[in-house]
Write a structure and sequence with these properties.
The structure holds two protein chains of two kinds. Chain A is an alpha/beta fold. Chain A has two domains: 220 residues, Alanine racemase (TIM Barrel, Alpha-Beta Barrel); 103 residues, Beta Barrel (Lyase, Ornithine Decarboxylase, Chain A, domain 1). Helix content of chain A is 35%, strand content 22%. In chain A, strands 1, 10, 11, 12, 13, 14, 15 and 16 form an eight-stranded mixed β-sheet that branches. The relative contact order of chain A is 0.15. Chain B has a domain of 128 residues: Lyase, Ornithine Decarboxylase, Chain A, domain 1. In chain B, 22% of the residues lie in helices and 24% in strands. In chain B, strands 5-8-11-10-9-12 form a six-stranded antiparallel β-barrel. The radius of gyration of chain B is 22 Å and the shape is elongated. Classes of the chains: A alpha/beta, B alpha+beta. At the A-B interface, helix 5, helix 6, helix 7, helix 8 and helix 12 of A face helix 2, strand 5, strand 6 and helix 7 of B.
Chain lengths: 347, 263
Amino acid sequence: MSGPVLRIDLDDFAANLTVVRARVAPAQLMLVVKDDAYGHGIERVVRRAAAEGVRWFGAFDVREAIRARSAAGPEARIFSWLTVGRTEIAEALSADIDLGVGDAGFLEDIAAVAGGVGAVARVHLKIDTGLHRNGIRPEEWPEVLERSRTLEHEGVVRIVGVWSHIAEASDREDDDARALFEDAVTAAQAAGITLEVRHLSASAASFARPEFRYDLVRVGAFCYGVRSAGGPAEADLGIRPIAALNAPVTHVSEHAVTLGVGSLHGLPSSLAKRAALAPVEGRLSVEHVDLGHTEVAAWPHAAIGDEVTVFGAGGASATDLAEAIGTVGEEILVRVSPLVPRVYRGE
Amino acid sequence: MLRVGRGGQDGGRRAPVSLDGVTLGIPGRAAPGSATPGRTAPVARISRSALDLNLRAVLSSTRSALIDVRADAWGHGLAFVAAAALRSGAAGLIVDDGGAAELAGTLDPARVVLSGEATAPEAVYGLTAGFTPVLSLHGSVLSLKRLRRGEGVSYGYTHRAPRDTVVALVTGGYAQGVVRSLGNAASVMIAGERHPIIGRVAMDVCVVDVGADGGVSRGDEVVYFGGPGEASPVLSEWTDASGLTAGELVTTIGLRNDREYVA
C-alpha cells in the first residue's frame, strides 16, 4: 500500500446507534445519511442501521433518498430535506419518499405532480425558526397551513410532520426558536392537521436538551462518532469514531516521518504547523502537507510500511484536527477523497 | 419576536414595500422556475479549450514534460486529461495506483509513471496567474427569502443583517468543496453581479445576500469561481480565505460534484 485507506467499523457504528437511541428515547432516531453518509458509504451504513432497527433516514436530496430507499427496504421512512424540480418530485413519489417543504411554491409543485400521478405526497412543513435558510417564515405560516388543508382535502398531499433547524448560537436563542416551533405546531393542529412527527434537533441539542427532542431527532455526526467542535469529548458522549484514515509510513529520517497521504487525498494542507496527529503514543506535530505526502515529527521505531492513524479510532479525532484549523470534524471527514479505498469491518 | 398566528395581520411585520417586488414562494402559486426539470446540485464545469490552451503553453517551453494526473487528474477526469495531454505532446503522465489501474491497457506503459517531477501542474489546470481556469463551479438558487435588519443567518448566527434585504439559499456546501471558511469571506456571481456568502457554510448549502433590489430569481445560476469575464470570482479569493491550495480546492470540487465537459 502506498496511499491511505479509510477503515470503517460497522460494529462500532451499531454501538453508537445504541447509545444515541437510548439517549433520545422515547423520541426516535432519524439517521442522517447526507453526502454518502458523511463519506462512510450510504449503502452499507443504511443497511446496517436498518438491521439494527433504525426506521427513519434523512437524505439531503431525492437522488440520495432513492439510494437510501434501495438500501433500507420498503418498510423504512426516508426523508428528503430538499425538494426541487418536478422530475425529482415524481421520482421521490414513486420511491415513497417523505418530502421536506420549506417554501410555499414547492408545496404547489408537489401537489401538482402528486395529482398528476394519483399519489398522496407525505409532506413535512418546515417553519423558519430563525436560521433563515429554507423554511416558511412565521408570518406566512397561517396562509401555508390553510393552503395545505385545501390540498389535503383534494387528496394530493398529507401533512405528516412539522420540522425546523436551530442555530445553536446560544441556549437563549434556541429557546426562542423552540417557542416559534411550538407555536407553529399548535397552529398546524388548530388548522386540523394531524401530525405524525415533530422534529427540531440534530446531534448536539438532542443529547443536551431533552425538550428539543419531540418525536424524532435528526442525528448524523454522533452516530458516526464525530463530536461537536468545542463540545463534549467522545468518551463523555459514549460514542467513538467509526472511521479511521490510515496511511503508510513511506520515509523515515532523524527528525521527520513521511506518510503516504496528502492534500490530493483530501487532507487539508492548512493542518501544517497547526495540528498534531497521534499515530502512536503522544502527539506529533504536522510539519508539512503536500500533494501526496505528509511530514510529521519523528517517533521512535517508525518503519517504512507501518500503517498509522491520521485521524479516527486509535488516533486524533477528526474534530481534533478540525479545531486546529477552525472548522468542524464533519468537514475533515467529507473532504476525504472518494477515491481513497474504504475497507469495512463488521459487515 | 415574530409570533405565529398574527404575523399576517400585523402591519408592522410586513415586508417593506421595496422588498415586495422580489419573487418569493407564494401560497397557491407554483414556484417560479419550477418547470426546470432535474436536480439543481452544483456542477463542476470543465473547459476543453482552456485545458488545451494551458497544455500548449506549458509544453512549448518544456521538453519531456510529465503531466500530473493523480487524483483523477486533480478532479478534472483522468481519461479526459490524459488524452488531451498526450495529444498535446506530453512525454508522459504521473499517475497514482488508481490511475494506473484505470489506464492499464489503454496507453503505452512507458508513458505512465508512478513518480517523478510534474511539469507545472498548477499552470496546466489554470490555477496560476496567466493561465486559463479549466474548472469552474456552478450552483443554483433554490429559494429566496426576506431577511429583516438584525436577523441572524445559519448556524451560530455569525452574520446578522445590517439592513432589510433578501437572501438566496444556494446549492453547494462544504461536502461539495465549498469550504466552510468561505462564510462571510467570499462572494459569488449571480446574473452578472457579485453577492457575498453570509453566515456559516453548511454541509450542502450556503446563503447569499442578494440585496433588496430584486434581480435574482429561483433557479438562477450561481458562479462560485472560474466563470468567464473579469467580474467572475477567482479561485485566489478562496485560497486567501481558506488557507488551502488551489490544487486541493479544485480536486475536491471535481471529485465531489457532477462534472460537465464543455468546448
